[in-house]
Amino acid sequence: MTLTPKSRLIIALDVTDRTEALSIAEKLGGAVDAIKVNYPLVLVCGLGIIKDIKKYANVIADFKVADIPNTNSLICRETFEAGADAIICQGFVGKDSVKACVDVANKYGREVYVVTEMSHPGALDFLQPHAFELVDLAFRAGASGIIAPATRPERLVDIRCRAGDMKILSPGVGAQGGDARKAIDAGADFVIVGRSIYNAEDPYAAAVNFIEQLRR
Ligand code: O7E
């Protein structure tokens, strides 16, 4: 699949209980553009959880792959064999490592997204000064898009200018202080929301609330 913006909302399913994860996926899968799985869920449930979630939504494997090209290829192959529609990798390991992910993704008809500047304060230590280079690297390696921070909409504006037509997925909305609407207005194509949805008393209502904000 190719990630296409409809609701523009991606849920980060960072729960560590299989039943809870599948219940949220079943309720929200039809409303969101994708469900992102990360290590907390996969380490508990195994890679097989991807196929279970895929019944309800597109799945992005947020494994922030960051190794030599050969190891990246192996990780991507197993992840796509498990059914993931897209995988997230780190760009700081270099173009050959990112390209290795893209080559495997192309074989499977899937997508790669590259982390540029992250959303947390520590991203200022090393990543931010190199964010534009990472955007360029993602483009040159043939990635479908990048990850950039909803916590810094002013940076999103600059990163959007640099990213051209590449898709931008933007985490940091809600619990980390970012605003969904501002992130989209600043140039993101999708926002990624975790705790503000899965920790809400009514996750479905919380997701609908975000979707309404994104529609305005
Ligand atoms: O703060 P939350 O609960 O809304 O969750 C945010 C999710 O996005 C969580 O899975 C975290 O690992 C991820 N994330 C960030 O928070 N900041 C980043 O800079 C990058 C990511 C991420 O998802 O990277 C790949 C998309």
UniProtKB/TrEMBL annotation:
Active site positions: D62 (for ompdecase activity), K64 (for ompdecase activity), K64 (proton donor), D67 (for ompdecase activity)
A GO biological-process term: 'de novo' UMP biosynthetic process
The entry's keywords: Decarboxylase, Lyase, Pyrimidine biosynthesis
Reactions that this protein is recorded to catalyse: orotidine 5'-phosphate + H(+) = UMP + CO2
EC numbers: 4.1.1.23
Domain Orotidine 5'-phosphate decarboxylase residue range list: 8-210
Single Gene Ontology MF annotation: orotidine-5'-phosphate decarboxylase activity
Cellular component terms per the entry's GO annotation: cytosol
Domain of life: Archaea
Pathway given in the UniProt record: Pyrimidine metabolism; UMP biosynthesis via de novo pathway; UMP from orotate: step 2/2
SMART domains per record: OMPdecase
Positions contributing to substrate binding: 14, 36, 62-71, 119, 171-181, 194-195
Subunit note: Homodimer.
Function, as annotated: Catalyzes the decarboxylation of orotidine 5'-monophosphate (OMP) to uridine 5'-monophosphate (UMP).
Family: Belongs to the OMP decarboxylase family. Type 1 subfamily.
Name recorded for this polypeptide: Orotidine 5'-phosphate decarboxylase
Organism: Methanocella paludicola (strain DSM 17711 / JCM 13418 / NBRC 101707 / SANAE)
